[in-house]
TrEMBL record:
Parts of the chain that traverse the membrane: 20-45, 199-222
Reaction catalyzed: ATP + protein L-histidine = ADP + protein N-phospho-L-histidine
MF terms in GO: kinase activity
Natural source organism: Archangium gephyra
This protein's UniProt keywords: Cell membrane, Kinase, Membrane, Phosphoprotein, Transferase, Transmembrane, Transmembrane helix, Two-component regulatory system
InterPro entries in alphabetical order: HAMP_dom, HATPase_C_sf, HATPase_dom, His_kinase_dom, HisK_dim/P_dom, HisK_dim/P_sf, Sensor-like_sf, Sig_transdc_His_kin-like_C
Limits of the Histidine kinase domain: 279-485
Localization annotation: Cell membrane
Protein name: histidine kinase
Length: 490
């Protein structure tokens, strides 16, 4: 089975992938947009300019055709260009003037059979068929039916430039007898090509700028993520003391804060575990020493036949074993994450049950336990809350002097229910109040120091809390719990 790469390697790969994805996310849509937009704009501009050129050339052809006499044009025969007849010269002069004034490349007049009657700029003799007309058969059919038209296809001249031809009909007594053709250069393609190259260059610059922005953005995201990665790796290696630095970016800042909360919780849990282990080791050592001592004395007494003394040693050993058992049970109760089994519980019943369970201890110490509870219903785990209250009342009974009184009260306050356990004992010294809820911290010789921490843990599991209120002459522990919302009427 192959071993997966370490976490640090996977995180670095993820950051590299993030940079690459940001770069692609920035550049690819922009590249597609520029390419599609540039192509569409170029095609639209070319189409518009081609149409405008065809319209202009056909207008020049129509203006020229209006000055050409169809009857005289038909009198021009092959050879007239060689002999230079008057009709041919007049037609050539007209075409030359139009060419010079309009700047077109070529003008020629043909009959309906496509034979040249005059050609300025092309040099074809009279009577010759114009080969270019085969390319524009559809356009010529419209012209010979009496309309103006322009060639749909650009063609290349001998100079390498692109040209277009406009046509207009020549009439005699209302009948179309020929056509004037005007060839003009598509000179706009030069600037259009330069514009296209400029657009491509600008697009390249824009892509470069966006690429730089993408790289800087990726680095800006990667730096705080790398810091978070370093913090996560430190926590994974067991370093729970180094805080996670805050981050200015809102989303990453939330991650940093949550990671810091997790680190703090792990550090607190680790500290508690260390305290618990130290406390267990300390608490177990004493009864184990007593058991070892009394078992040795017991062995000697049994060998000596002193059975009466042996019975006392057995009782002491059993007492130490019971103490050990209580330590283990308290330790397991505090360390175990117990799921809550919530159900409606009457608050006065909880307080009464906890007091009844400690009635024997209170009587032995001549302490009176007084319970006053307002009616309320709690959505809680009754057995766990009873255990928490037993610990609180037990501490109060043990802290009270003989003949003292412990008051256990419960009342609704706002959206919660507050249970107070008050005694008139010596109280908790101010120097010890901060540590009263630490696991295994106790001022009693045989205390495990887990009662109050366990009670607070149960309270917080229910969404409440447990705190100490120390006033002159009294010590009060307040346990607050949320109340079940009253059902709304119809």
């Amino acid at each position: 089975m192959s071993t997966p790469p370490p976490l640090s390697s996977r995180l670095k790969d993820a950051l590299g992938s993030l940079s690459a994805r940001l770069l692609v996310a920035f550049l690819l849509p922009t590249l597609l947009f520029l390419a599609l937009t540039g192509t569409a704009v170029y095609a639209l501009a070319r189409s518009i300019l081609e149409e405008e050129l065809g319209t202009s050339l056909s207008a020049i052809a129509a203006a020229t055709a209006s000055q050409v006499s169809g009857e005289r044009m038909l009198t021009i025969e092959p050879g007239d260009d060689t002999t230079g007849t008057r009709t041919w010269r007049n037609l050539v002069r007209l075409l030359t003037e139009v060419r010079d004034s309009s700047g077109v490349r070529r003008l020629y007049v043909v009959d309906t059979q496509g034979r040249v009657r005059a050609d300025v700029g092309g040099g074809l003799p009279v009577g010759t068929e114009v080969p270019e007309l085969a390319r524009d058969r559809l356009e010529l059919s419209r012209v010979f039916s009496g309309e103006r038209a322009a060639s749909q296809v650009l063609f290349s001249g001998s100079d390498g430039r692109l040209y277009k031809t406009g046509y207009a009909p020549v009439r005699r007594e209302g009948q179309v007898v020929g056509a004037v053709a005007v060839e003009g250069s598509a000179a706009f393609f030069g600037p259009l090509a330069r514009l296209s190259r400029s657009f491509a260059a600008a697009s390249g610059v824009a892509l470069g700028v966006l690429g730089l922005v993408a790289i800087l953005t990726a680095r800006g995201l990667a730096r705080p993520l790398r810091r978070l990665m370093a913090s996560a790796l430190r926590i994974g290696r067991g370093d729970l003391t180094t805080p996670v630095p805050p981050e200015p970016t809102r989303e990453i800042g939330v991650l940093a804060r949550e990671l810091e909360v997790m680190r703090g919780a792990l550090e607190s849990r680790d500290r508690q575990l260390k305290l618990m282990l130290a406390g267990v080791a300390h608490e177990v050592r004493n009864p184990l020493g007593g058991i070892s001592l009394f078992s040795g004395i017991l062995e000697e007494d049994l060998k000596a036949g002193a059975h009466a003394e042996a019975a006392g040693h057995v009782a002491r050993i059993q007492h130490e074993v019971e103490y050990l058992q209580r330590i283990v049970e308290d330790f397991l109760a505090f360390a175990r994450e117990q799921p809550l089994s919530r159900s409606p519980v009457a608050a006065p019943d909880l307080l009464t049950e906890a007091s009844v369970l400690l009635a024997a201890d209170a009587a032995a110490r001549e302490v009176t336990v007084e319970v006053v509870a307002e009616p309320a219903v709690l959505e809680a785990d009754g057995s766990l809350l009873t255990a928490a209250l037993v610990n609180m009342v037990k501490n109060a009974v043990q802290a009270s002097p003989p003949g003292g009184k412990v008051r256990v009260t419960g009342r609704g306050e706002g959206h919660g229910y507050t249970i107070r356990v008050e005694d008139s004992g010596p109280g908790v010294p101010e120097t010890e109040r901060e540590r009263i809820f630490e696991p295994f911290f106790t001022t009693r010789e045989k205390g495990t120091g887990l009662g109050l921490p366990l009670s607070r843990k149960i309270a917080r599991a229910h969404g409440g809390d447990l705190r100490l209120v120390a006033l002159p002459g009294t010590t009060t522990f307040e346990l607050t719990l949320p109340l079940v919302p009253a059902p709304r009427g119809p």
